[in-house]
Automatic annotation (TrEMBL), chain A:
Keywords: Cell membrane, Membrane, Transmembrane, Transmembrane helix, Transport. One of its GO terms (molecular function) is ABC-type transporter activity. GO terms for cellular component: ATP-binding cassette (ABC) transporter complex. This is Transport permease protein. Belongs to the ABC-2 integral membrane protein family. Gene3D superfamilies: abc type-2 transporter like domain (3.40.1710.10). It comes from the Bacteria. It is found in: Cell membrane. InterPro entries: ABC-2_transporter_component, ABC2_TM, ABC2_TM_bact-type, ABC_2_transport. Pfam families: ABC2_membrane_3 (PF12698). The chain crosses the membrane at residues 36-54, 185-210, 237-260, 266-287, 299-319, 354-374. It comes from Adhaeribacter radiodurans. The keyword Repressor does not apply.
TrEMBL record, chain B:
Its main location: membrane. Residues 132-371 form the ABC transmembrane type-2 domain. The keyword Protein biosynthesis does not apply. GO terms for molecular function: ABC-type transporter activity. Belongs to the ABC-2 integral membrane protein family. It is found in: Cell membrane. The keyword Transport applies. It comes from the Bacteria. This is ABC transporter permease. One of its GO terms (cellular component) is plasma membrane. It is a multi-pass membrane protein. It comes from Adhaeribacter radiodurans. The chain crosses the membrane at residues 20-40, 179-202, 229-253, 259-279, 291-310, 346-366. It holds the Pfam family ABC2_membrane_3.
Length: 382, 372
């Protein structure tokens, strides 16, 4: 009986300890309002800028035309291209060397060359030539532009033969699922969410422990009877609360400003977001325990995470196109899993049964990061 | 001048004393330069396809074979119904559904027309557009094949055809790495320069040593120069190493003159270091400096035209790129390496970047004086 109450007292004392540790960390944060404003304002500004500006769509690409025929057919074709939302014909050229000149200064990305007897060939032989020349220094844009331009030319071709209906025709009807208007924001907003949350959260905690090391206050913590696990969790709790504010502002902005709907369960999406910030916060803690100066910690968390997160999470470049070793490496990027979750829940309206694997992976990563942080921390203790 | 020499000695020693960060400065960026460019391939090869074949005829089988041998598509599954096929899209196992209707072959012969249905996961609009275009072109090819086989050869083609040929200049093999490697290099040089500079000064502030320097007869501009020069050298060193890697591992040999590139990079680094300096005069501790420079650099990099083309951005964002030093370096390094532009070709970018360098450094020095 006596023993029991002693245990209870100890338990109470321990939770008191933990509580004061958390309080101390909160004071640290609130004492520095400038940092607090940056931490809360940064995601808001980034989501707005990136959400609106980043897109893989090709719109209004500047195009030049070298029209050697200048007859009714070529004019009709050119105006059809100009009328599409993909192209804007900004230059009428007179020679091939002018194409080169325009490419060099970057004023156009694609040139259409129509030979002299275009109309005559079309009328008499039912066959005419058109040449597309792309500035392929960016192969991606070049490919897309050539594809779009070819499709418009094909359209034009079908229109001028519309009257003589062809035998054995296979028509195609296309349905664009999940994103019928083909809005760029639908793929970029989930990606930007994953990227901003990941980087901001990792950075928040990356310097917390190493700063104490650098300032010498770590020694005091180490001689106190508090368990390493508690110290580490106490460090993460205030940042978790800050991150939840960030999640809320990001979701509000996505829906009301960027007009990306939440088709699935808001609860599920929020829960997944919280899990993901915990993963990122623990990664930050791991970096913090593994380094010995703030400079190193921050340099690793930014230079080391920024590019891999952008390039390997799947939102800029599709992972299935990458060479196999990179596909394997991309599995180590937490943002990749979260990006899949957000796309599934937010846009496809999927439920738990679709995202449980991703959730499991993120949970596993969190446990590993936390475990390693504690291990690193213990080493210093001995 | 002697003061500057001693100060520089001090700074270099401080940098080289910290082996850990030195290693990170070089190893991490270079590792990324070796790994990340491979990720940037947008060529569509493995579009995963679910087929719903209601017809089960020779014709539908031929069409499916044609699709399989086109090289763009990976057949994920056959599905008995459209509804079931959609779940493969829902669960992200497939990208596109092709539904071949019952009576596909019969209609084609008897009615002279038939309609297939293509359903695309369109979350990524560009991927969806390309996938759809590829599938349609394969179907069209098959259609043409059917016509030539079934129709008695006419005197000439019954359909007016515009033959489109396409050629790619500057990068005929469509090597995406030629485009990405220089861009990634710019990012790495920028991050190394700006982060380190912004951290370095504020660190002296945080641990109080800056007071000591302020009470010595060291002139402000000496102090600032001594802070900038080491990182300027480091930045150019990272650039050189990166160019070496680009040549050794990716076989990228600049078409243009390296001198042009270095002249520009030298000026550019001054601008980036000036930015770091400016941020550190505004921040009280390393965390603030880091967060601020991270925030700006992230915006600069993602809006630089490195990943997404600037002309597709909304107009306000395009104006934003005009005050973004990174976007100028991305342009310069790409046109110098791929198109061989001369100093005259990049003079505009050079002048603007020099303007940034002057402005940012002057601002930083003014702000620094005010606080001491």
């Amino acid at each position: 009986m006596k023993n029991h109450s002693k245990n209870g007292k100890q338990k109470a004392k321990r939770s008191q300890q933990f509580y004061s540790l958390v309080k101390k960390e909160f004071f640290h944060i609130f004492r520095d309002p400038k940092t607090l404003i940056i931490l809360l304002g940064m995601p808001v500004v980034q989501i707005i800028i990136f959400g609106f500006a980043l897109t893989n769509e090709v719109k209004n690409s500047r195009m030049g035309v070298l029209d050697q025929a200048q007859d009714a057919s070529t004019q009709a074709l050119i105006s059809q291209i100009d009328a599409s939302q993909y192209f804007e014909i900004t230059r009428y050229l007179n020679s091939y060397s002018e194409i080169e000149q325009e490419f060099r200064t970057g004023t156009i990305k694609l040139a259409l060359v129509l030979p002299q007897n275009f109309d005559a060939d079309l009328q008499h032989f039912n066959k005419a030539q058109a040449q597309l020349i792309a500035d392929a220094s960016d192969p991606n844009v070049a490919n897309t532009l050539i594809n779009y331009a070819s499709a418009i030319i094909l359209d034009f071709q079908e229109r001028i033969t519309a009257n003589s209906s062809l035998p054995y025709t296979i028509h195609t009807e296309t349905r664009m699922l999940y994103n019928p208007q083909l809005q760029g924001a639908y793929s970029f907003v989930p990606g930007v969410m994953a990227m901003v949350l990941m980087l901001v959260c990792t950075m928040m905690t990356a310097i917390t422990i190493v700063r104490e090391k650098e300032l010498g206050t770590m020694e005091i913590l180490l001689v106190s009877p508090v368990k390493p696990l508690k110290i580490i969790i106490a460090k993460a709790v205030p940042y978790l609360l800050l991150s939840m504010l960030n999640i809320a502002s990001i979701l509000l902005l996505s829906v009301f400003v960027l007009q990306v709907p939440i088709n699935g369960s808001l609860l599920l999406l929020s829960a997944a977001s919280i899990l993901f910030t915990i993963t990122s916060l623990s990664l930050g803690l791991l970096i913090s325990t593994a380094t010995d100066s703030q400079q190193t910690a921050m340099f690793i968390s930014l230079t080391g995470l920024f590019l891999p997160t952008v390039m390997l999470s799947g939102f800029m470049f599709p992972i299935e196109n990458m060479p196999l070793p990179l596909q394997v490496i991309s599995n180590l990027v937490p943002a990749k899993w979260f990006y899949d979750i957000v796309k599934a829940v937010m846009i496809k309206g999927a439920g738990w049964q679709v995202i449980w694997q991703e959730t499991l992976v993120l949970t596993g990563m969190t446990i590993v990061f936390m475990g390693l942080s504690i291990k690193n921390f213990k080493i210093r203790l001995s | 001048m002697r003061t500057l020499k001693f100060l520089l000695q001090k700074e270099f020693r401080q940098i080289f004393r910290n082996k850990a960060i030195l290693r990170i400065i070089f190893v991490m960026p270079l590792m990324q330069l070796l790994v990340l460019p491979w990720a940037a391939d947008y060529e569509m090869k493995n579009i995963r396809l679910t087929i719903v074949d209601h017809d089960h005829s020779l014709g539908s089988q031929q069409l499916i074979n044609k699709i399989n041998s086109s090289g763009y598509f990976l057949l994920y599954a056959y599905s008995p119904s459209y509804q079931q096929a959609v779940t493969t899209l829902d669960q992200d196992q497939a990208d596109i559904i092709l539904e071949i209707p019952n009576g596909f072959e019969r209609d084609m012969v008897k009615e002279n027309e038939t309609t297939t249905l293509i359903a695309v996961n369109a979350i990524n609009g560009m991927k969806a557009g390309l996938g759809n275009a590829y599938l349609q072109s394969v179907i069209r090819d098959y259609n043409n094949q059917v016509r030539t086989e079934w129709i008695q050869p006419a005197r000439f083609s019954p359909q007016k055809v515009i033959e489109v040929t396409a050629s790619n200049w500057y990068n005929p093999l469509q090597n995406y790495k030629d485009f990405m490697v220089p861009g990634i290099l710019v990012v790495l040089v920028t991050m190394v320069g700006s982060f380190l500079a912004s951290l370095n000064i504020v660190k002296e502030k945080e641990i109080g040593t800056i007071e000591q320097i302020n009470v010595t007869p060291v002139k402000k501009y000496h102090f600032i120069l001594a802070k900038l020069l080491p990182f300027w050298v480091l930045g150019l060193f990272v650039l050189s190493l990166g160019l070496l890697i680009a040549w050794l591992f990716y076989g990228i040999v600049p078409v243009g003159n390296l001198v042009v590139l270095y002249v520009y990079a030298a000026v550019y680094l001054l601008a980036v270091l000036g930015l770091g300096l400016l941020l550190s005069t505004y921040s009280e501790n390393q965390q603030q400096a880091m967060l601020l420079s991270f925030f700006l650099i992230m915006v600069f990099i993602l809006m630089s035209g490195l990943y997404t083309s600037i002309e597709s951005m909304p107009l306000w964002a395009q104006y934003l790129t005009k005050i973004n030093p990174v976007s100028y370096f991305i342009q310069v390094i790409r046109i110098v390496i791929l198109k061989g532009s001369s100093l005259a070709d990049i003079s505009q970018q050079l002048v603007i970047t020099a303007g940034f360098a002057l402005l940012l450094n002057a601002w930083a020095i003014l702000n620094y004086k005010k606080r001491s």
